[in-house]
Please model this.
Amino acid sequence: MFETTRPPTSAATEAKTAPRYWIKTYGCQMNVHDSEKYAGLLAEMGYVPAASPEDADVVLVNTCSVRERAEDKLFSELGRLRILKEQNAGGSNGAAKEILVGVTGCIAQQRGDEIIERQPAVDFVIGTRAIQTLPEVLADVRRTGDPCVNTQDLVDFEAQGVRTDTVRAFVTIMEGCNNYCSFCIVPATRGLEIYRPASAILDEIRGLGLRGYREVTLLGQNVNSWVDPDSSMEFPELLSAIDESLRRTAREDGQPGVERVRFLTSHPKDLSPRLIEAMASGQRIARHLHLPVQSGSTRVLRDMNRHYTAASYLEQVAALRAAVPGVGLSTDLIVGFPGETDADFEATLELVRQVEYDSFYSFEYSPRPDTAAVTQYDDDVPAETKRTRLIELQRTGQSIQEQRNEAWVGRETTVLVDSLSRRSDEDVSGRTSSNHIVNMAGDAGLIGKLVDVRVTSHAAHSVYGEIIGVPH
Ligand code: SF4
Model:
């Protein structure tokens, strides 16, 4: 989970007279991409990015409700924005101007009118499936002066976003989730699954290739349950169709186009042998899978309503590694789920030791309102036990991750350079097909290029290498 703010610092150079927007994004990649769509709608309306909320005419807070205290954080943020609104209205920040504050995303969908009742400084609330109503909502608020709430189910996959990354792009292929994992709020906030047609997905990816993007990530809460609404095509066939189309269009367009396709997030119950085969045979399908396991205890998995066992998960991992050598594996883990015993937790540690993940995200269980776990189980694992287990799990996982990184030293690999390094002005950073982060000496001219690299050293979360070939 992470928080991001928009826009890039180049905002200061934009036209001074245009209205400005500021978006604060909480949560997962789906939310990051939704913020790109809001930015696209605002750009169509003539807005430009603001350098700060103080400088904005419209401020959006795009929320996530997955973690505990998300609502408390939101209302603290809204309290700060209320003060800003009052200062702006009174002209104490310079000339008086109106600032409109909107709340979007999962909490907006869940709480709707309650948000405005609790914080009257909010001018509008837009749910997860009504993104494209932003222009009407803004016009309504300006015309009537009244707050507006729209949480209708109006999914529009074709909304064009403003992408801040020039190398990697997100492509939404579905919305919602049908799984009802007992700890998860997503089916309530994002609705049930709805799928984007294959033809539209293929068109968008081709267009991204022509615009110079080298990598796309197909997005969905449960991406591998996608089915084409217009045919019987399922997710493995979609991957193969994308792979085939990228190789064909690279020849026709005379440009390399998109080199790598990733997908997030996959549910183990939908990891079929056909999907493993599509990953194995796809030349442009990244050798990486994020496969959340959540727990290594089959009893806890049953209470989580996950529909697989620890043993079946391990079999899938073995099948994947046999078919896709060198595949990178990452996961999500929860400790302290209701009823988790020491033996259940030990089973999770054992699974982590057996799988040897390349990276992982781990969390303490926290009861989320409106989930089955809250109504069915007592949150009976003491906070101190949750904390101790999380520390032990992270220590185990990180030690494995470091050993796996160490094993990369001396290997040759291909890296897609995507950014300047955060740590050194003289380095750039990129990822292998297996999603390992590789840093190397280089400048901004390498961003967007594939480079062959020999790994020379490792750290806890990344490796360092030297370029051994001509960037392409
Ligand atoms: S698969 Fe489970 S954890 Fe993932 S979004 Fe759906 S309900 Fe939530």
Q: What stands out?
A: Residues 108 and 143 are 22 Å apart (CA to CA). The chain has three domains: 2-150, 168-406, 412-467.
